[in-house]
Specification:
Distance between the termini: 44 Å
Shape: globular
Structural class: mainly alpha
Radius of gyration: 21 Å
Number of strands: 2
Number of helices: 13
Order of helices and strands: HEEHHHHHHHHHHHH
Oligomer: single chain
Length: 366
């Protein structure tokens, strides 16, 4: 079925704003600015950037409240349909997973390429699948295992390329790239915990997605604000102390750097605004089309980020990255069941037989 103009608009918005979100964050990491001690250094404040992301999520809640107010006299809008009788604190654990995962990802992003950052985020399907079998009693069928194995192959290719192919013209060291890639993978484990928690405890409450994202932003920003004060006094380990006070996070130094460089302010505002529109577009794509369509568009976003990174010389082209990227996309498509039907029909028949056999074994045990 052909997409409507509105659906095409949503698809373009999701790809563009999602790409801007990652690229603006990386752009900020690339810029120099004078800090609170008068020294010019690169902007490396991952926790401050995470706080900016949560501000963007709070905008989703404000948007929800505005739409809800506009439709208070009986108007209908899919974005506000759902249960309003729930305790917002049910979203607190999800917000904490989001806080930890995002902070670690942004630390990893300062150490590796923007394209590798986006590609390694694809590893989340591996951990979601594993955790789902444990906590949601889900059966992973053959098609999904094939997809997971293909994704792992793609990640190995990308990681090995980052670790091996270094030249004197590249600014990042091998240890930096490996550490950054590993941190991003660790962050995906935590993000997978967030998704499984939301499916187990939140999805059944029928909370409007825009409202759920907004409340997670409120809780994440509130807790991170307290942590920013604590991190201001805690000494950072070597290689992670690139701020005026050499602490885990010097928020004052970060704000001074933003004030001293207008382009830094543009990048941070880009992060805040793009995450709000990206969440809105992603939720709308899922509602208007499907979750698999959202996954495909997210894959397109990875390609856009990679191409822009090459164009602005944030990294050097390695053909192995292209193979890794192709394997990642193929694995994600196989996992979500959107490969050409001639192949998928045979695999789906085997998957159905596997599910039937598993259910029969469960009944026998009962």
């Amino acid at each position: 079925m052909a997409w409507t103009k509105y659906q095409r608009f949503l698809g373009v918005m999701m790809v563009v704003t999602g790409s801007i979100n990652t690229l603006s964050t990386k752009w900020a990491d690339q810029m120099d600015s004078k800090g609170s001690d008068g020294t010019v250094r690169k902007f490396e404040h991952p926790f401050l950037q995470a706080a900016a992301m949560f501000l963007g999520e709070i905008l989703c809640l404000l948007t929800f409240k505005f739409i809800y107010w506009r439709n208070r006299n009986g108007g209908e809008n899919q974005l506000i349909q759902g249960n309003q009788n729930f305790n917002p604190f049910i979203l607190m654990p999800a917000a904490m997973f989001d806080l930890i995962g995002t902070s670690i990802m942004y630390i990893g992003l300062t150490l590796t390429y923007a394209s590798s950052f986006q590609m390694f985020r694809g590893s989340i399907i591996i951990f979601v699948a594993i955790l789902s079998t444990t906590f949601l009693d889900r059966i992973i069928v053959k098609r999904e295992w094939i997809g997971i194995a293909t994704v792992i192959l793609g990640l190995v290719i990308v990681g090995a390329t980052d670790a091996i192919y270094q030249s004197s013209s590249e600014s990042k060291g091998r240890n930096s790239l490996i550490t950054g890639d590993l941190l991003i993978i660790v962050a995906q484990v935590i993000s997978a915990c967030q998704m499984v928690y939301e499916e187990k405890y939140v999805s059944g409450l029928n909370i409007p997605p825009l409202q759920a994202v907004g409340w997670e932003g409120v809780f994440g920003f509130s807790v991170l604000s307290v942590l920013l004060f604590i991190f201001y006094w805690i000494p950072a380990p070597p290689h992670f102390d690139h701020n005026a006070r050499r602490t885990v996070e010097d928020v004052v130094d970060g704000l001074v750097q933003i004030g001293n460089n207008p382009l830094l302010l543009v990048a941070i505002l880009g992060t805040i605004v793009s995450i709000a529109f990206f969440n809105f577009a992603g939720i709308s794509v899922t509602k208007e089309m499907s979750a698999t369509t959202r996954m495909v568009l997210d894959s397109v976003r990875t390609f856009v980020i990679w191409m822009v990174s090459l164009a602005v010389s944030w990294q050097v082209f390695h053909w192995q990255h292209l193979i890794g990227f192709a394997a990642l996309i193929l694995g994600m498509c196989e996992y979500n069941g959107i490969l050409p039907r001639c192949w998928q029909r045979r695999v789906e028949t085997e998957d159905q037989d596997q599910v039937v056999d598993s259910e029969a074994d469960r009944l026998e045990e009962a």
